[in-house]
Predict the 3D structure of the following.
Amino acid sequence: MNFQEAEHITMLRDTLRRFIEKELPRSEARRLDRACDFSEERFARLCELGVTGLTVPEKYGGLGVDILAAVITIEELARRGSSLCGPFIHCAFYGGMNMLENGNEEQKQRFLPKLAAGQLLFAYGLSEPDVGGDLASAAVTARIEGDEVVINGTKRWCTGVRKADYIYTLVRSGPAEEKHRNLSFVLVPRTAAGISIVDINHLGLRYSATTDVIF
């Protein structure tokens, strides 16, 4: 079967390959991998290409939702390691896609233009020390007290939190007896009071430290 790639996808690949060759030498990619880090300045230059707008509708400042193009962006950036595709995922997918699907209109107007411009990064707070991949067993709790949400517990394997603006946090918001109910997401500012971040030694995904987040 012959597969003819759409012209705009081919053009996107070419643009990203030229960008990578100019902006991220292999020696620098290896150095960043060893340091578990990425260059915020280099990522900002990537955002000037508009790729972080590929998961955001035009009405919110994006390029229009083009999931294939967004995935192709990951594919091309990953050819030179994770130091650019990692933060791109945290912006366009953890941020843009989640906000588009789950945010209310006020949140969309507040967050999506900044995500489209690459000005915000979201990190995931999903797994826990005693949960692993069984997210329905999440035990981190959240309750409303007045005009505040109070969260208690520890999230594990939270990659990129130290450079993220918000933590997209899965919480137990009701009785635990109904395992697959009473679960909510709370968008927690990384700088919120009462949060402690502890690094974890890890392999892979080395564009940023992976951490425990203690609420």
In short: The longest strand covers residues 166-172.
